[in-house]
Design brief:
This protein is mainly alpha-helical. 59% of the residues lie in helices and 2% in strands. It is built from 9 helices and 2 strands. Strand 1 (40-41) and strand 2 (44-45) form a beta hairpin. Helix 1 crosses helix 5 (89-112). The termini are far apart.
Length: 188
């Protein structure tokens, strides 16, 4: 009876060679889309979430033309592509899948803060104000906190900034409801 040989996972370097030569089956490529976050990549532990990255790191990735592996590794992990070539291809793909899912989650959180305008605010032109996007968020937070240098905001964890924006929105909605109640009571 022959002893079954243990197969090693394909390295990312080997995967790239095979992929670039068209030797990876489409089904294998689809399977890689299902890989999850690895515990380590390039010898470093991967974060469980992207909650602790700074607004600067988030802005850098969101404003990049392409969120390439090279950019993501550099910004989030402080690694180069060459640092992960000997890692399993599944781990590298799993990390990119994780980052994509985290960006969708973060985008959803910021989307929750949009809108909620009154008819009067819309009539006054609130939708024409260009205060959104990453620069608008950085500028708003700087003004809110009395920070004169936008670069200082880039060092703050994005989740802290999001929580402040959420708090401000909740307070504004409360004040709007309170004012309506007081106006209604004054009419009685």
């Amino acid at each position: 009876m022959r002893k079954k040989r243990k197969t090693e996972p394909m390295t990312f370097a080997r995967y790239l060679v095979l992929f670039n030569n068209g030797c990876i089956a489409k089904s294998s490529i689809e399977d890689l889309k299902e890989c999850g976050r690895p515990e380590k990549l390039g010898g470093r532990y991967t974060p469980e979430t992207l909650n602790n990255i700074t607004m600067g790191q988030l802005a850098e990735l969101l404003t990049a033309e392409d969120q390439t592996l090279e950019e993501v590794l550099r910004v989030i992990m402080g690694l180069r592509v060459s640092d992960v070539m000997s890692d399993p291809a599944q781990s590298v793909h799993g990390f990119m899948n994780f980052v994509t899912a985290e960006f969708q989650r973060i985008g959803g959180l910021f989307k929750q803060l949009e809108g909620g305008y009154t008819a009067e605010q819309i009539q006054a032109g609130v939708l024409q104000l260009d205060t959104g996007g990453i620069f608008g968020t950085i500028d708003w937070y700087a003004r809110r906190m009395g920070i004169t240098n936008h670069d200082d905001v880039l060092k703050v964890p994005w989740l802290h900034i999001w929580q402040c924006a959420k708090n401000d929105k909740n307070v504004a909605l409360y004040e709007r409801r309170l004012n309506k109640i007081m106006l209604d009571n004054a009419k009685k």
